[in-house]
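TL;DR need structure tokens for one chain.
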Amino acid sequence: MGRPEAAAVAIQAWWRGTLVRRTLLLAALSACVIQRWWRRAQAGRLAARRWAALREHTLREGAAVRLQAWVRMWRVRLRYSRLLHAARIIQLYWRWHNCQTRGVIQGNYDIKENQLNLHLEISLGSQVCKIHQSTPLPIKQTQDL
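>> reply
TL;DR here they are.
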């Protein structure tokens, strides 16, 4: 081979190498674009799964919190109801004790014509005092007008 042929072969080799390198560079860039797209798609799917798991966890956690709050409220109301019942029993016995030691006043009244009739019964333990009283009412007669 002569010098011009060797130069042509060298130029052709350089050109083919340039074309191969360009093709390889384009293939590498295309592969890089595809990989980026794939990784972004995978990350999006992973994020969607994470959000779904977080929503499900939040719903379950919220349900558990509501259930716990309901049970606590029910227990507090039950305890309050028991304490209220105990207080009522204590009040009942205390009132009964006071009535036995202090006494009870019972009575009724009626008004007939121009007179107030009062009937009282006062109990002090075992002692009973009955009072019957009639009091005239200062009502003007229709004839006085």
